[in-house]
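input
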Amino acid sequence: MPAIRSTLARRGIAAAVALPLLALAACSYGSESKGDNSKAKVAVGSKKIDGLDAVKIGYFGNLTHATALVANQKGYFQKELGATQAKYQIFNAGPSEIEALNSGSIDIGWIGPSPAINGYTKSAGKNLRIIGGSASGGVKLVVDPKKIKTLKDVKGKKIATPQLGNTQDVAFLNWAAEQGYKVDPQSGKGDVSVVRTDNKITPDAYKSGSIDGAWVPEPTASKLVAEGGKVLLDERDLWPDKKFVITNIIVSQKFLKEHPKAVEAVLRASVETNKWINANPDEAKAAANKQLEADSGKALPAEVLDPAWKSIQVTDDPLASTLNTEADHAVKAGLLDKPTLTGIYDLTLLNKVLKAAGESTVDDAGLGVK
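output
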């Protein structure tokens, strides 16, 4: 796995882009992690941080959330939180995690850029901040090679994305528009049919022939390949330096203000975890898979896990300029209006942690708190 890129390409992109309000889906909050062994990992003599009994952390059961998976499995969160218990909730979609953050069901979460942007703009910039990066890459267009042999063959086909307005949905709609295809962003109907499908059932939809391909994150992409699909496009190839944000760390502004030491502890665990992942890629891959099994009841087979893991790069850098570009893509796709994103980042504590660890600090591309 590539090493963490310590320095961010400084692209002082102004926050001219913005977003409108995709309605957050009303869905139930995430399930508790079945692999939560945090109580057993509390060191003798440890003290609670900020007087908190627990810090509630949310993440997805995706390999693009490798930092959270490994930090849970290896006990990095609990180590840094001391006698304050690390509790976990697992989510399948960004809107439900944003709702959990808004309600206080979680305090800190690993999440994709589009739901973070939507959550920020829906609250007029009052409910969350992005406080760190976590991963780049790990998204592919996988197709049925019998039906689609070249990129031009995508026209007229049925392509799945995880959810209306989610990060991969925005990316595919933007790509389709660049090909000259006309697609209604809400219904998904047009020169290409966009079929919004939960990642859990996308492989079955592919096997049944109800979709011809999918623009999806890992490990779903590699699951489709294991079913005979072919990678037609790796989204990394569409970005400068092959880097784009796929997972950020967010926190509620209330929790950040009231419990900065706890937030700093979680960020310290994240930086420590990413360093360990990059130094021990095979062990880290096994740890992530073990946590996926604990959370879902099923580990990934090697033919899915190995290629999926190789396509993801963990990073402390939030790659802020690419978030700005992704927001621009959503505007161009017709899903979003234009608010301002200024203030969505607060990287103060992350840069404090990075300096203490002897790492280079990271940049917010002009989208930080003023």
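quick obs: The two ends are 36 Å apart (CA to CA).
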